[in-house]
């Protein structure tokens, strides 16, 4: 069975994310009174190797929003984008020079509502290993790969607490080597690990 076939089957037989993971750190009251979220998409690119990995980026430290954080390639869905899949592929090409034709798309998975007013749709895809990726200097400081077995391991999904806008917020984080994956990216990973019957 190929990696594409394994992921497709895993997605079909997995379970939908819980409201906690789909609504992020928004309380029911905040969700009720919040304006319609801006739509965004990210690419969860999995490398087709014996030990599959997941591509992640480290955002440039000079960015105004989320500087230095670990993230999937992605961003806002533009009016010219046909759908979340098209947006995720376009953003990955802009951020890390990943050719959309090099991605075998499995499909979109459960979207995630962030506390900053976005609904983010992760798009699952498979790519060949060791592609020549080039980070966009103004946005991306680094591109790296984390083993899929690490990303999907519930034992590595730890809960943390912090203050944001005067309120206590609970979030997930994943430690790997010298990297800290947290916030929306970690929550989408946790959701994906529950969705995939891997």
UniProtKB/TrEMBL annotation:
It holds the Pfam family NUDIX. Residues 37-167 form the Nudix hydrolase domain. InterPro entries: CoAse, NUDIX_hydrolase-like_dom_sf, NUDIX_hydrolase_dom. Coiled coil: none annotated. CDD domains: NUDIX_CoAse_Nudt7. Its cofactor is Mg(2+); Mn(2+). Transmembrane segments: none annotated. Keywords: Hydrolase, Magnesium, Manganese, Metal-binding. The keyword Nucleotide-binding does not apply. This is CoA pyrophosphatase. It comes from Sphingomonas donggukensis.
